[in-house]
Design brief:
The structure is a homodimer. The mean pLDDT of chain A is about 95. Chain A is built from 10 helices and 13 strands. In chain A, the strands form 2 sheets. In chain A, strands 5-4-1-8-9-10-11-12-13 form a 9-stranded mixed sheet, with helices on both faces. A 4-stranded mixed sheet of chain A has the order 3-2-6-7. The termini of chain A are far apart. In chain A, α2 (about 55-60) links the parallel β4 (about 40-50) and β5 (about 65-75). Chain A has a single domain, classed as UDP-N-acetylmuramoyl-L-alanine:D-glutamate ligase. By secondary structure, chain A is α/β, with parallel strands linked by helices. In chain A, α8 packs antiparallel against α9. Chain A is globular. At the A-B interface, α7, β13, α9 and α10 of A face α7, β13, α9 and α10 of B.
Chain lengths: ~300, ~300
Amino acid sequence: MSILVVGSVALDSIETPFGHTEKTLGGSATYFSLSARFFAPVNLVAVVGEDFPKKYTEMLVKRNVDIKGLETAAGETFSWKGRYGYDLNNAETVETRLNVFENFSPKIPTEYKRSDIVFLANIDPDLQSYVLNQVKRPRLIACDTMNFWIENKRKTLIDLLGKIDIFLLNEAEARQLVGENNLLKAGKEILKLGPKKVVIKKGEHGVLLFSRVSVFSAPAYLLESVYDPTGAGDSFAGGLIGYIRKSGRFTSDSEIRKGIVYGTVMASHAVEDFSVKKLSSISYSDVQRRYHEYRRLTRF
Amino acid sequence: MSILVVGSVALDSIETPFGHTEKTLGGSATYFSLSARFFAPVNLVAVVGEDFPKKYTEMLVKRNVDIKGLETAAGETFSWKGRYGYDLNNAETVETRLNVFENFSPKIPTEYKRSDIVFLANIDPDLQSYVLNQVKRPRLIACDTMNFWIENKRKTLIDLLGKIDIFLLNEAEARQLVGENNLLKAGKEILKLGPKKVVIKKGEHGVLLFSRVSVFSAPAYLLESVYDPTGAGDSFAGGLIGYIRKSGRFTSDSEIRKGIVYGTVMASHAVEDFSVKKLSSISYSDVQRRYHEYRRLTRF
């Protein structure tokens, strides 16, 4: 009963006012996996180049991430170079090198094909569809996207949304997708495009969850220091999808709300250090402790 | 067992992308009173000019606001002209005419001097102190301020804070007051200046409440249409202080959290129409209904 994630594994170089990193582990599938692993076994499908450090694959295996689906291709690993100012909400991309990711065609290993949850991290919607064609009736399909696909692969993306149970996107993408500035209206409009649930991520301002029956608003966990916001969204998705898998109640509104809170907790851990440093070193009791702190923070 | 509020009563001219108004009822004490009246009797102290329309004083009286403390002085009423763009978070002041407000020296009627709650709306901290010297041991003192006083009357303001139970300010003011960008740190720093509780208002992103024992984070109520954000902060304060007065439990953390939610509910009503139009026309059942909707919006 595993979660299948398809996305990127990258080497990130990041600069923030608090420090910088060079070619450290990043990528949507990486953050997702290191977050979801606290709740359920994770099967990862992605591609890296020959330069990908062995210590990273070893670390992932040690953290209970199945990497049979992590292909090594000739060439260099996808790399992203980004910069954040004091306003950590917006990343400035300095350089993107797709490298082996350019010709990525996700092949789902036979053992993965019966995964009951599939998370399609932010990749080309054509590839996301291609993945869905290879798996056997998953019980829940979740999907992320980005502004580039909304602009350039709109039709494919919208066709895909009819098959999606949980669609995640950030607030700017939500506004862009339906041309509506008000997020309450935008969320409802996106539901009409097909997904059963829509999650709008607002960074430090929290998350909105839209379903046919209700809206849920969850503020972010409060932190005194944010060092590196990279991967917050995918860590969030890992907590959300991981918790839903663990609870086993795939359509329960109250369980999905709890999942949103676990996602919030995982994102808050992820941003407290560079790269996946904190996400890969915390324990499940750290996750639980913060979940209970979040309850105290929001209960009335 | 009333609430005493001292602040401004104004004639506002407001322009937003959704319409405009000319010389309609505004002012911090007005919004506060029309919000708090749902929970407890309100005694208003402010000054207006001879031009102040009788229909407004009549409306206030009908809404259960005691206006014995509303002085009429020779000259014109304080008027504010403001403009909002599509980003309704920031008002641009086109013109401020202090008029009779310039020489406002709040005189507290004898019947008001035993009010057990005092709300010092955003006026000169010298006047706020002057008010406190006239009242007899209130059980709770709450106070608002603005960037101008933080900059120009810093010492008076900080001296005052030692007497304050609940100090309200918006996020930019909080950052400015203690020179700290992170709101969690800023809230804790402000507590050190003396107030027992600090409320940081974040507009559409909700509210943070800091006390010695806990932090509470409340997202805003979600609205499809915001027409005029003027007075949102004072309407919030009215709901918060009003509810605390009604509950009678002036120091209970859980009651103050509920007050924060009632404040959020009142602010959400206030911004759904121009001036005090909606705030003056809703009923208590509208308030209660939205309180329960907010619970559904945030519960997990």
